[in-house]
Amino acid sequence: METKLTLRLNDNVIERAKIYAKSHRISLSKMIESYLDSLTREKNKDRKVPITPLVESLSGVIKLPSDFDYKKEYADYLTVKYK
Description:
There is one protein chain. The chain is mainly alpha-helical and 83 residues long. The chain contains four helices and no strands. The protein has helices at 11-23, 28-40, 53-58, 70-81. The longest helix has 13 residues, at 11-23.
């Protein structure tokens, strides 16, 4: 169920938020919903460093094999980059 919510915010904050949302291809409503959800979710209370809504939304996007060695891949990347 979705419910409309009216907020009173500073005009400058709203404009910056709109620009941010547009540049990240997300609606302002969805951005605020994700932020409020991340603040109020029970699992976040035990974390020392909170995960941002954007990072959390990307979780699970890439499926890697169980034997994927990310350290080796990163080392290979750095070797090529700094040759």
